[in-house]
Amino acid sequence: MTNRVLFICTGNFYRSRFAEAVFNHLAEKQGLNWRAFSRGLAIHWAEGYLSPYTARALEARQIALRHTGPARVQLSAHDLEDSQRQIALDRAEHYPMMREQFPLWADRIEYWHVVDMPVCSSEVALPEIERNVNALLTELG
Fold it and tell me: 105: which DSSP letter?
């Protein structure tokens, strides 16, 4: 059985999709028994399949789009239950949303501190996500 890590952000459009793709690309290269998937807490806040910032950053790193899901998906209780690790990308932004939507899970998941645009540019946020993913893979490997 493959272990699963769930990356959570607001729109499932930018940060969580980048984390998912980087994680899956590197886990596959390292032969780890882990796979990532991503979900959003408010997917209606974004339009389109994937942020152009995410697409460009993945292309620059030669990470295929197959490493991220085919569409943006709203977070469900099943997603939380069907994963061994759950990580929201920004505690300040996502903790209140988790408390509202999934109060039993809000204090059980992990939170990173990667702020969304426009407060934090993609040139800062995406490398920070990449560092966090690498640290997570080291921990899991």
Answer: T
Cross-strand bridge partners of residue 70: none
Distances (CA, A) of 81 to 14, 65, 76, 105, 135: 23, 26, 9, 10, 23
Q: What is the pTM of this model?
A: 0.96
In whole angstroms, give the CA distance from residue 9 to residue 56: 19
Asked if residue 35 lies in contact with residue 66, where contact means CB atoms within 8 angstroms, the answer is no
**Contact of 9 with 15, CB cutoff 8 Å:** yes
What tens digit of pLDDT does each residue of 80-128 get? 999 999 999 999 999 999 999 999 999 999 999 998 877 888 898 999 9
What's the Rg (C-alpha) of the chain?
14
- Taking the C-alpha atoms of residue 76 and residue 57, their distance in angstroms, rounded to an integer, is 28
